[in-house]
Specification:
Elements lengths: L1 H4 L2 E3 L4 E4 L1 E6 L12 E5 L2 E5 L5 E8 L2 E3 L5 H17 L4 E7 L5 H6 L7 H15 L3 E13 L2 E4 L10 E4 L3 E4 L5 E3 L2 H13 L3 E2 L7 E2 L2 E12 L15 E10 L6 H4 L4 H24 L14 H5 L9 E8 L6 H14 L3 E4 L2 E3 L2 H21 L1 H85 L44 H8 L23 H82 L7 H28 L6 H38 L3
Parallel strand pairs: 3-7, 3-18, 8-17, 8-18
Antiparallel strand pairs: 1-20, 2-19, 4-5, 5-6, 9-10, 9-13, 9-16, 11-12, 14-15, 16-17, 17-20
Helix pairs in contact: 2-4, 4-5, 10-11, 13-14, 14-15
Length: 706
């Protein structure tokens, strides 16, 4: 038992935690304002809005954290990754990776720049800062750096280590064999190693990114710690010999890409295919893990090397955080929706995390002694109460297990019944299939036997014709097969007759002994028997075969006619579809023209209203220049204003009726004509009165002239 306990042990305290998911919106490439839709980050929610600021329904997502365009890498690390880094120092496995389309800011988030360091750099410095603060434990840190390029694992610390393989063991779990690990003791040493590994990483240029990552990279830190020899009396002090081993993975994924946007070809096209394939498998794994435990089926970890390496981080023993980076441009809306849906599914995954410890013999015995002492103290304090509680607990557990056992027994019995019924159905179906095959075989063999028997009958006639006597005496036909002649084989499904084939007619019948000897194979010359000649042996009429052939030909002709009709119907159907499409196009054009025509009355009404306002303004200005309101000019202007106003009002009414879709009736037309006549008469009367009023004035002025 001590040997089994010496293997990798887990503590009894387990924590169920959901994966922490955050979304980061990178700044736009160009500062031009978008006239269409855009993404907006508010609090912990990101949603799609129209150009006027109205949110679009069904396109809003909530996460643990949402970082806008102005957020720095330091803030992302503080809110998302810092707790995982500190937990890794305490013995918990941890994983943080960036996911998103190409050119969305994943590498910048993980690696950063000189002015804004990324998550990897901040995590390395924070780990060594945390270790320096812990004085009661000793630490040993190993680092490795790998990339997955075209589904091949390469060592970035040692270029010669290419195409490495993934293995799994009870002691180490899932690991990459042959991967170089460097023992480090300072943050500066780790950063130099990362810088040297970045030189060996695969990058390429595409239409969307000048320096695009063409591989997935995994920076791994293995943190081992052991308590120092410090005297302490606590039950779980650091004085035991338990060794904590935790694994921290910091992953920079290559971005998913569309060939139409990146313009990839040749080597870039091959790289993009492998990248999209591994990301698709990662999405399938996330989708399976997001389902319930009962509905969850096989999880395809082994379909990709990326998911195989990250298996403990996805639904296993690890604290995990995912940062999904998205692009704000309107052209990338579909890719952004896919990334947000991936993040929503990942948010539903729950991991079971616990401290990873390796116990030595001394540590195991020491811990057991301490637990025994604690239990002894509890029993001495309240012995009876503790026993009663334990008895009740055991009874409840036993009852629960009994109910579960009965339930399982019932389910097992139902399953057995269903298996029996299924087997019975399979046997019945097999018997039906065998019967059908037998019928088909019998019909084929029967048809063949009939044809062969006709030919054999002809051979028998020819053979008997040579054996008949030349005189008028009759002899018994010989049914023995000719040497090397074809003998008709009976079907396996037909019963064997107990006697030889009979002639058509028998006049005189022989005695039973003679007849039996003849049928047992003896060739007897029974001249005394008066039987029909051999030429009368069973003959078959060829009409049935001819009728059969004729029916087959008729069926073939009917089949050809049916095929021709089917082809004609297909051609007619295709023509009808083309005609319908053409008619639908014409209908849409006519609808557009009708819409334009409907807009004409509204435009005319607006023009008439505008002209009416202008007309009123002009007349008001003219009237302001006439000092005497009772003069003929003032009267003319007043009458003209009234006539024009009535005319414009009539036109507005007419266009309003047309705009509302009401057709003008004959009565409405007659009313308009009457209004026009009245306006003309009024205009004539106004002009006549103006002329008459101006004539005396002109004569007075003429007479007053010397």
């Amino acid at each position: 038992q001590l040997e089994r306990e010496r293997e990798r042990e887990r503590t009894t305290t387990q924590q169920m935690e959901k994966i922490c998911v955050a979304v980061r919106l990178r700044p736009p490439v160009t500062q031009e304002a978008s006239d269409g839709t855009y993404w907006k980050a508010e609090d912990n929610r990101i949603s799609l809005h129209k150009s006027l600021g109205t949110p679009i329904s069904g396109n809003s997502y909530a996460f643990d954290h949402v970082f806008d365009q102005d957020c720095t890498n330091a803030r992302v690390y503080e809110l998302l990754t810092k707790d995982i880094i500190h937990a890794a120092v305490e013995g918990f496995n941890g994983t943080a990776f960036a996911y998103g389309q190409t050119s969305s800011g994943k590498t910048f988030t993980m690696n950063g720049s000189e002015n804004d360091p990324g998550i990897i750099h901040l995590a390395v410095k924070d780990i060594f800062r945390k270790i320096q603060m812990i004085t009661n434990r000793e630490f040993l840190i190993r680092v490795s750096y790998m990339e997955i390029y075209n589904e091949e694992i390469n060592d970035l610390f040692a270029v010669e280590n290419q195409k490495l393989q993934i293995h799994e063991s009870l002691e180490r779990g899932i690991f990459v064999a042959g991967l170089r690990e460097e023992i480090v003791n300072s943050a500066e040493q780790v950063l130099k190693l990362i810088q040297s590994g970045e030189v060996n990483r695969h990058f390429g240029e595409t239409n969307m990114n000048v320096r695009s990552s063409r591989s997935h990279t995994i920076f791994r830190m293995v943190i081992e710690s052991k308590g120092k020899d410090i005297n302490s009396s606590s039950a779980y002090s650091s004085s035991d010999d338990a060794i904590r081993v935790s694994v921290l993975n910091l992953v920079d994924l290559a971005g998913s890409e569309r060939i139409a946007k990146t313009g990839a070809g040749g080597v870039r096209l091959k790289e993009g295919k492998h990248i999209n394939k591994s990301l698709m498998i990662l999405g399938n794994v996330i989708n399976k893990l997001s389902e319930g435990a009962k509905q969850r089926g096989h999880i395809p970890y082994r379909d990709s090397k990326l998911t195989r390496i990250l298996q403990p981080a996805l639904g296993g023993n690890a604290k995990t955080s995912i940062i999904c980076t998205v692009a704000p441009e309107e052209i990338h809306i579909e890719e952004t929706k896919g990334t947000l849906q991936f993040a929503s599914r990942a948010k539903r995954i729950t991991n079971c995390v616990q401290v990873n410890e390796i116990l030595t013999d001394a540590a195991l015995l020491k811990r057991q002694k301490l637990e025994i002492e604690e239990l002894r103290k509890k029993l001495q304090g309240s012995h009876a109460e503790v026993l009663e509680q334990q008895i009740l607990k055991l009874r409840n557990d036993m009852l629960k297990y009994e109910l579960e056992r009965e339930k399982l027994a019932m389910e097992l019995e139902e399953e057995r019944k269903s298996h029996k019924e299924r087997d019975q159905c399979i046997r019945e179906q097999q018997m039906k299939i065998d019967n059908l095959n037998s019928l088909v075989t019998f019909s084929d063999s029967d048809r063949t036997s009939s044809q062969e028997f006709v030919r054999q009958s002809v051979n028998v006639e020819s053979f008997d014709s040579h054996n008949t006597c030349h005189d008028d005496a009759f002899k018994t036909p010989c049914f023995k097969a000719v040497p090397n002649a074809y003998v008709v084989k009976r079907s396996n499904y037909s019963t064997q007759p107990e006697y030889s084939p009979l002639p058509d007619t028998i006049t005189n019948v022989a005695d039973e002994d003679t007849w039996l000897k003849m049928n047992k194979g003896y060739i007897a010359d029974l001249d005394s028997l008066h039987m029909t000649p051999a030429r009368k042996v069973q003959s078959f009429d060829g009409c049935s075969n001819e009728n059969y052939k004729q029916q087959v030909q008729n069926l073939k002709r009917q089949l050809e006619l049916t095929i021709k009709e089917k082809d004609e119907l297909k051609i007619n159907h295709t023509e009808q579809i083309l005609l319908n499409n053409r008619l639908m196009g014409e209908i849409s054009e006519l609808q557009q023209e009708a819409q334009l025509i409907r807009e004409v009355p509204r435009q005319l009404r607006e023009s008439v209203a505008y002209c009416k306002d202008v007309y009123k303004d002009v007349l008001s200005i003219l009237q302001s220049f006439v000092p005497d309101e009772k003069s003929a000019t003032a009267k003319l202007l007043s009458s003209t204003s009234e006539i024009g106003t009535n005319l414009f009002s009539t036109l507005e009414t007419h266009f309003s009726m047309d705009m509302d879709g009401h057709r003008t009736s004959t009565m409405n037309n007659s009313l308009i004509q009457e209004q026009c006549k009245m306006l003309c008469e009024k205009l004539n009367s106004t002009v006549t009165s103006l002329v008459l009023s101006e004539a005396p004035t002109f004569e007075d002025e003429h007479l007053g002239t010397p």
